[in-house]
Recover the amino acids of this structure.
């Protein structure tokens, strides 16, 4: 390692395969409108919405203006973000039930997993809410694991095994019979069965968390919030599963149900009433990594927002020494994000996602009228800039695609009205 | 380190470093009765993106099991019958607040706090702790390297950098005294790293008997905790490790890896 390797973080970026079109708008709101006008105009030109994606370095300042602009152009956006609901016990329970039902046979671990996660029969189905029978206590699950064979079997075969195994009580049989009675996965049956699972957890699993919790009940609160989220998720699952079956993109299998639950769980809540595949995906730039989408609209290419190096408490001189990695600092783990490395990654990966065209947008002034500079990341690549008159025709009522973009969509050569790079403003 | 043969370039035999090039993963998609490859990414949506690509290409995902680094460590600890309870950020901030309050009430405290206006803000203290952890993994060799590196910088920055190490290290130690749980999920990663080393890989074999390869994807950095986990896997298990960095920073990171892996005894902590 030599200090010159540090320069690798500022090396040129390979040109993307797809052409890059740049739209500069006066304000952030204009920029959001421009981005959504591009999406709307592309759709009118016959591009299916699933062939479009919007990528934003940081959604926070853009979600609201993008959402408003989307509504203005009649587009239903879906905002994707990281949610930790998949780390919660109620979610894991729903997933484990799908897995136990997936396929012809389940091994011991798959079979016992829902019970470890406190599966309990829903009280609405006749179980006594006061009974302490459920959930099965961890010690009993552990003893069952010791007593049962590991290999995969069908549920009816498991029932036979359990009946002939000492020390595995009747509650295990009850759980297996519930699995055995599970209907084939149809939208309604999925919602009913998983809904029952969530309610069983709310009735019996949640009190266990509370009993074991500290006086501040922080775990209980997390668990209770997760129950609410998973309940909503199960309702959405019913509609989305129906949509996907209709589209033919999913099969009637419990493992596809589990996959779909994962998809829904990682969306930002509150915007998912448009539960269909006809919605426009809006991602944070970090999250488009490795996707392949024909048209990508990358929003917020300003010097202030993209790159946006991580805020570190460490003095820059120390960061620089760790990045250079000479002498003793070679053992210290460097964080490229200190100097915009993560932003570079996200920028490059956003360009790579696009198969046909990238449209980059930015704004040139703040609400107070101060100048906002162009992202230096754009200096690494060639862009075709859209003229101001073209931009106005794009966001206006005629919603006219700029010629450079029309050319790409139609594949035909159109007259260019863009000025050469560097000639804007 | 012992047991890990290396190529001339300082990269251990069973470690392959890539910059981008994720399509290699898709080439390994095939129908199998059980997964033989762990696909690990710290970002949850990245796992979903890989699954989406597989689905769109109509490729089977049977060969892959998707996890994040904490997830695999929790599984390892479960197999080792070790505790997996960890304090989350919300609880950690309130613990830090009580540590700060106690320190303020007691002049004799030896908690080394940084000077400055933000020094009483639990979020500021927590950020110091997480940065020290990401860079050193609280490993004695890296703690020493930090001190030496700080000493090579001009005054007064040298003292500032050294004081930040003391503060991050000090608050981690105080937090350990406050809770029986692991201080953070990253502490679980360290615990699993030590467990893999201490059992000479047998706990890993118990957890993932069919896994032949671990692929780490979508990394914009390789933190010290993740480096040490990889190091333990290479030294104590037969698993092959593939790391895919991202294109903007990957070349830089790739060149730094041999030195980072040269830190022996992965997962060791400098707490007495």
């Amino acid at each position: 390692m030599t200090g010159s390797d540090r320069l690798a973080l500022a090396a040129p970026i390979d040109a993307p395969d797809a052409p890059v079109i740049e739209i500069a708008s006066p304000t952030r709101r204009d920029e959001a409108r421009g981005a959504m006008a591009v999406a709307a105009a592309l759709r009118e030109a016959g591009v299916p919405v699933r062939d479009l994606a919007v990528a934003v370095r940081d959604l926070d300042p853009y979600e609201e203006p993008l959402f408003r602009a989307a509504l203005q152009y009649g587009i239903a956006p879906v905002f994707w973000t990281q949610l930790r609901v998949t780390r919660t016990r109620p979610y894991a329970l729903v997933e484990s039930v799908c897995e136990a039902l997936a396929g012809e046979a389940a091994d011991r671990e798959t079979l016992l997993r829902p019970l470890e996660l406190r599966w309990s029969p829903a009280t609405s189905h006749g179980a006594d809410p006061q009974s302490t029978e459920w959930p099965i206590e961890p010690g009993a699950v552990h003893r069952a694991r010791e007593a049962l064979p590991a290999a995969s079997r069908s549920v009816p075969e498991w029932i036979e095994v359990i009946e002939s195994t000492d020390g595995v009580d009747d509650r295990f049989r009850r759980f297996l019979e519930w699995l055995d009675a599970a209907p084939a996965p149809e939208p309604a049956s999925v919602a009913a069965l998983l809904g029952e699972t969530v309610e069983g957890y709310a009735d019996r699993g949640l009190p266990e968390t509370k009993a074991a919790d500290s006086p501040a009940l922080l775990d209980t609160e997390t668990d209770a919030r997760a129950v609410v989220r998973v309940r909503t998720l199960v309702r959405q699952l019913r509609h989305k599963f129906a949509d996907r079956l209709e589209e033919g993109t999913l099969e009637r299998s419990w493992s596809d149900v589990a996959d779909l639950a994962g998809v829904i769980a990682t969306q930002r809540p509150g915007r998912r009433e448009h539960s269909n595949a006809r919605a426009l995906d809006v991602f944070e730039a970090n999250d488009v990594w490795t996707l392949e989408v024909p048209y990508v609209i990358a929003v917020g290419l300003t010097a202030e927002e993209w790159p946006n190096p991580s805020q570190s408490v460490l003095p820059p001189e120390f960061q620089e020494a760790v990045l250079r990695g000479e002498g003793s600092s070679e053992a210290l783990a460097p964080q490229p994000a200190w100097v915009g490395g993560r932003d570079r990654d996200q920028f490059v990966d956003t360009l790579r996602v696009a198969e046909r065209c990238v449209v980059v947008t930015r704004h040139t002034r703040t609400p107070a009228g101060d100048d906002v500079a162009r992202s230096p990341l754009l200096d690494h690549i060639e862009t075709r800039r859209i003229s101001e008159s073209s931009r106005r025709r794009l966001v206006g009522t005629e919603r006219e695609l700029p010629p450079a973009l029309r050319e790409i969509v139609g594949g035909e050569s159109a007259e260019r009205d863009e000025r050469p790079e560097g000639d804007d403003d | 380190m012992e047991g890990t043969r290396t190529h001339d370039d300082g990269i251990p035999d069973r470690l392959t470093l890539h910059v981008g090039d994720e399509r290699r993963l898709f080439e390994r998609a095939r129908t199998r009765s059980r997964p033989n490859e762990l696909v690990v990414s710290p970002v949850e949506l990245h796992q979903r993106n890989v699954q989406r690509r597989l689905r769109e290409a109509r490729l089977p995902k049977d060969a892959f099991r998707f996890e994040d680094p904490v997830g695999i460590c929790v599984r390892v600890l479960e197999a080792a019958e070790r505790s997996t309870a960890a304090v989350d950020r919300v609880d950690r901030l309130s613990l830090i607040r009580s540590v700060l309050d106690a320190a303020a009430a007691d002049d004799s405290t030896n908690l080394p706090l940084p000077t400055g206006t933000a020094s009483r803000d639990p979020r500021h203290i927590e950020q110091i702790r997480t940065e020290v952890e990401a860079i050193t993994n609280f490993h004695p060799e890296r703690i020493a390297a930090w001190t030496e590196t700080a000493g090579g910088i001009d005054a007064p920055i040298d003292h500032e950098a050294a004081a930040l190490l003391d503060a991050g290290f000090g608050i981690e130690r105080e937090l350990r005294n406050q809770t029986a749980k692991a201080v953070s999920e990253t502490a679980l990663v360290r615990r699993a790293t030590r467990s893999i080393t201490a059992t000479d890989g047998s706990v890993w074999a118990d957890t993932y008997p069919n896994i032949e390869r671990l692929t780490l994807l979508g990394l914009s950095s390789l933190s010290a905790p993740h480096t040490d986990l990889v190091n333990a896997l290479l030294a104590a298990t037969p698993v092959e490790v593939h790391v895919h960095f991202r294109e903007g920073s990957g070349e830089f990171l790739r060149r730094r890896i041999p030195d980072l892996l040269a830190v022996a005894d992965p997962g060791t902590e400098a707490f007495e």
